[in-house]
Amino acid sequence: MAFETNWSRSRHFTNTLSKWGYLKTTGTIALLAGAFPALTAPAAAAEAEPAASGAAVLTAQQSASESMGAFDDSLNGDIVVTGSRIVRDGYDAPTPVSVISSEEINTEAPANIADFVNTLPSVVGSQTQVSNSGALSNSNSGINALNLRSLGSNRTLVLLDGRRSVTSSADGLVDVNTFPQALIERVEVVTGGASAAYGSDAVGGVVNFVLDRDFKGIKANYEYGMTTYDDIPNHKAELTAGTDFADGRGHIVVSGEYFTQNGVDTIDRDWNENYVFQINNPAYAPGNGEPERLIRAHVGESQRAPGGLITSGPFSGLYFGGIDPSTGRATLGELAYGQVTGPWMIGGDYEYSSAYHHGSNSLANDEDRIGLFGRASYEFSPAFEVFGQISWNRYEGTSYYQQTPSTTTIALDNAFLPENFRQMVVDYNAANGTDIDSITIGTSNAGIPAAGSNNVRKVERYLGGAEGDFTLGGIDLTWDAYYQYGKADLDQQLINTWQNQRMAAMQDAVYDGSGNVVCRVNIDSDPGNDLPGCVPLNRVGVGGATDEALDYLFELLPSRKQYIKQEITAFNLSTNNLFTNWAGPVSLAIGGEYRKESMHSDIDPINYETGWLYGNYKDESGAYNVKEAYIETVFPLFEGADFNGAFRLTDYSTSGTVETWKAGLTWQIIPDIKFRGTLSRDIRAGNLLELFTSGTARTNSADVPQVANPNLPNRADQFVQNLTGNPRVKPEKADTLGLGVVFTPTFVPGLNMSVDYFKIDLKDAIGFITADQMVLQCFEQNITERCQNILYANGQRYDSGQDRDIDVIDLPYMNFSSQKVSGLDIEASYRMPLGPGQLGLRGLASHYIENETDDGQSVPDDSAGVNTYGGTPSWTYRLSATYAVDGFTTSIVGRGISSGVYSNNYVECSGNCPDSTPDARTIDDNHIDGTFYVDANFSYKFPAGPTTAEAFLSIKNVFNRDPVLIGGGPGGNNTAAYPQTNRGLYDTFGRFFRMGLRVRY
């Protein structure tokens, strides 16, 4: 027999073989199924009659797959769905489990499996290759990391065949693109705490990718995708083969995948040209009844221009434009200011001032992925089978963060200043008795390429072990033991970022005695500051930077090679008939695991030249180990009722011993209705980044209040934010409650529904205060602890009586907050014959009642119903209808989110507003629209000689709906560069076509 985890060991417990691939999910619900044809697989199944106790077993007639046109027969046999370590016939686990079949995945043909999983309502706020394009100073760009319950991707445990996988970054993110998509038989989503069964990180739940390790034959797949705008073209090719050997005792399966995509380097969509931002109201004053914040269109930047805007002094408002060919120097212009508020202005020359910086973040990454997978097993006897498994993945991707804006000083004798401007200053000094010898300009650095990253990740996983089934003293036992070694080699390379000291030397260009333009540092009286080979750089105007200067500016680039390793040794033993009590057989599972996680870095010597604009990499190293033991039981209480309990003892080398547990009940009160409930204690320990990072630094800016002169507009300070690890952080602890009811009405065959309430109470959450929060809590709320993390240029800490430019903000990891999440999951599915074919309906919805974070310092922040980045919509839902007949399958999918707000703490008003405070800011428009997308999928299965072929077409966002515009701000130097929406919730690509051909022999 081929090795199977406790998630998927169905063949040991089922007798009926079926080619039907639909998996009934026992998890979330769908009140909405009657309102709209809900989501279903290309085939659907009714639930089998419950046995005395055990795991959920779902069956259907073999003819269903033929009439529904299911292409992949990898789901032959009944499917056991379980969220625990114990598997027994007919038992629905007390923890809800949603299941996605391979047929569902194939029908919608996602570019990667994460794109499909992320459409589930319970999966909110995941990191994707789209959303993390600005992750420069780490290797996260391009990673697809799932996020259950909006608790954070590092609080979702992602498994492959029930086992952990090595992470693809130091902050614990498992990139699901490293899993062999062509071999995925199904995806099981446990929407509840599961730490007692599977260990740390399972706070929001578990996503388990189950492979078809017994695949036989050969199958190939080619897909091509592009948008309706004729961009983001991508290709995916897969080849898989499997066969038995040694008279069926052995089995081998191999699979390979290649994916390539041409990205779009800017937010190249018309909807992004509305210039919608959140700004401070220029008419606001405390007590005057005006709202403090405004949401406005046609908002641009007031403190910079593409070639430089003078921001202070008598020449404020003059900007340097394009290069005049006759002089080789910039032209002069005067900015038409709109209504100015801090770094923003409404109207005026808003488009010109924001040009080049606006929308300069990547819409889509360039990426290339290669994945190879192989597995072999050999059965010596039913009691002893050995197996080995290897996977190798390589990702290379390029994305752009932004056309970096900055503020800089230009000396009056700078060789690149236009002569007419220089004369203006000379004349002004003579007339006013002043001695102006420099100007300060804000610039978006037009002509200097946007900063970005080129990351290469290689992720390898090696697994070897043994397993078997045997009987001892009348007790049927199943066991497995394995050793797993995983490693991720991360090559982090920044592009188009500069060393601040080199930039300062290059831009300080003057004439030497021979009339040549040179770098001042090489001709001044201090030989200690010489910069050999320095090439002068013209930062005055648009188009003055030469290729020679850019080559020298980017001659050195920061980089780091980071190595992450994971070693696991584990043993599991389970039985479904330990003994029989008054109500039935008692099940028991026990096991233990040892795990070691480590990382170290190789730093290019140039990185020790500090002061990079981005990517101030440091040498990071550290390791920890975990020793765990668990026990779990299913104990029948009376007919139709079972107790499921688990306990795990975990010892961390960094933080000591912690206990997790679970207590669950199921009660089939009548054949039509089942009640279920769980109460659990779950944990998440600090990951390698949170424990050991030595200081990830990047440049940022914040909207800083003027303390000494509160009536003055806020400053836009540029500083370095420094994120540091903390080996003393202790594990987070979460108490999870789940209560649900499952309806399988006998009077409506084929209908299944469930409703589940969940509540998660997380304490001692590990995280850090953002730079904007640090500034607000220090300057506006006078929280001393936050002020101690703010440093000025002279190294002094924050002084409440002075206004000085911030130089550094320290962001240490700490156990500083709590989080409470509660809500409802709803699911329904229904299948029926309709005319000559089969109709399947399915719907899933999640409603968030609260998602409150409390840092213990400011007012708690409830993000339920918040549709900005990091928020959780009040309602998310997915509905579909599938009809199959004579080889044709059509699936229509609806995906939607409800309307929401910018913040639940905001007070919306347009006049006669109450006092605005940091805990209850007033704003003129706190509404954000929801949206609804329609997808259409078509496939046709047909014989092609000795093979079976399937042609398919998938259209996402059929009606090409633009995303809802959301105003970012009022702080952050990257606000204008990013899309004017929340791309974690709204579609930024537009209508997307995917088409291809699958062949199986």
Describe this structure in words.
It is a multi-pass membrane protein. It is found in: Cell outer membrane. Belongs to the TonB-dependent receptor family. Residues 91-206 form the TonB-dependent receptor plug domain. This is TonB-dependent receptor. The chain is mainly beta and 1001 residues long. It folds into two domains: 79-269 and 362-402 and 452-495 and 558-686 and 729-768 and 813-898 and 930-1000, TonB-dependent receptor, beta-barrel domain (Maltoporin, Chain A, Beta Barrel), CATH 2.40.170; 270-361 and 403-450 and 496-541, no CATH class. Helices cover 7% and strands 46% of the residues. It has eleven helices and 52 strands. The protein has a 22-stranded antiparallel β-barrel. A five-stranded mixed beta sheet has the order 4-7-8-5-6. A five-stranded mixed beta sheet has the order 30-35-36-40-39. The model is unreliable at 1-81 (pLDDT under 50).
Chain oligomer state: single chain
Domain count: the total is 2
Bin the strand percentage.
Answer: over 45%
Helix content: under 10%
What is the CATH C-level name of the largest domain? Mainly Beta
Distance between the termini: 23 Å
At the fourth level of CATH, the homologous superfamily of the largest domain is TonB-dependent receptor, beta-barrel domain
Low-confidence stretches: 1-81
Rounded to an integer, what's the Rg over CA atoms? 30 Å
Give me the count of strands: 52
What does the overall shape look like?
A: globular
Largest sheet: number of strands, sense, barrel closure: 22 strands, antiparallel, barrel
